[in-house]
Amino acid sequence: MKKKFSKVLLASTLMAGILAGCSGAKESSGGSGGDTIKIGANLELSGQVASYGESIAQGLDIAVEEINKDGGIDGKKIEVVKADNKSEAAEATNAAIKLTSQDKVTAIIGAATSGNTLAQAQIAKDNSTILLSPSGTAPNVTVGTDGKVNEFVFRTSFIDPFQGTVAGNFAAKELKVKTAAIFADKSSDYAKGLAASFKETFEAAGGKVVAEEAYMAKDTDFRSTLTRIKGEKPEFVFIPGYYEEVGLIIKQARELDISVPFMGADGWDSPKLVELAGADALNNTYITNHYSSEDPDEKIQKFVESYKKKFDGASPNAFNALGYDSVYLLADAIKRAGSTDASKIKDALEQTKDLSLVSGVVTIDENHNPIKSATVLEYKDGKQVFNTKVNP
Asked: Which of 37, 63, 67, 310 has its CA 20 to 30 A from that of 18?
C-alpha cells in the first residue's frame, strides 16, 4: 500500500550518491560478519501507520527465530537491524542511508507503505542493496515512471490493480450488485489506483458507478459526503483507504443508516479498525487481502500456531504473514545464490518460481512482482472470516 511520498527524492539521491561514491560497491561478503548475515528492517514502528510496521516486525521476528533455530542460511545466523521510519518518507530515507552506509546490511526489508519504500529505492540502487517491501502495493515501487524495472527492488505483496480487479469482480459477480459508489482518499496514490481498477472492472462486468467522492488523510468528519452518497442510492460502496479514516467512515455511515455492503483492500487490515468502527458497524463489509488465518492450508496453520504461541493466542493478520514471508523469500534467494553479493541475490530473486509461502505460492515476474492468489475476507462481529480465494 502507499502513503504520501514527501519530496525527498532529490535530497536522498544526492546523499546516496555521496555515500556510494565514498564507500564503493558492496563486496560479496557485505552484510555478513563471520557467522552472521545482517538484514535491515526499515519499518513504520511509530507514527500514523505504526500498526502495519509493528505487525510486519512481529512476523519477521518469528521467521528469523525459526531459520536460526534450524541452522540459519548455510550455517550463518540472521542478524536483524531494525530502524523506525516513523511512518514518514524522509525518515525512511535516513534509515536506509544508515542501514546501508553504517550497518552494512545485505538487504533491507521494508517499508510497509509504498511511499516509504520508494523513499529508499535510490539508496538501494546506489549502494547495491536488495530492498524487499512486504506490503508496498503501488506498481511504481518496482517499475519506475520511465517503465524501467528498479533493479534491486522487489516486493512480497501483489499490486494494487490486482486488488481492485478482485474487488470489482466480487461486487458484480458474487454480491451481484448493479450500482456502486467510490469513496477514496484523494491524497493517496494507493487509494486512487485501487479506485481506478475497481471502476474499470466493475463497469466491464455490467455495473454502474453512481457516485465518486473523495476525502483527505486525517479527515475525521465524513457525514456530509456520506449523505451525498446515500442520496445516490448505491447498492455497494468501495472505500480504498487506510484504517485510520476508514474506521470513522464506516461508523458514521452506519449512523446515517447506510446499510449496504462496504469493501476495501489491505489498507483496512489493522486491529485498530474494529476499535474505530465498532464490531457491529463492520458487519457486511469485505476486504481483499493477502491471506486468511482461517485458511486450512497446512503451512498457514503452522504459522498461525507459532504466532499464537508467541503472542498470547492472538491471530496473525496479513502484515504479520507478509513480514514472515519476506524473510523466507529473501532467505531462499540468498541460499540459492550461495552468496551475500547483491547482484547474485537479485538474480536468485528474479528466478524464484513456485516458492510455497504463507501468503501463497510465489513466482516472481519480470517486474519483480509476485504472481500469487488473493483472499477475500468478510468482517463478522469484529472478526475477519475467510470468504474466498482468487487466483491471478
From this structure: 37
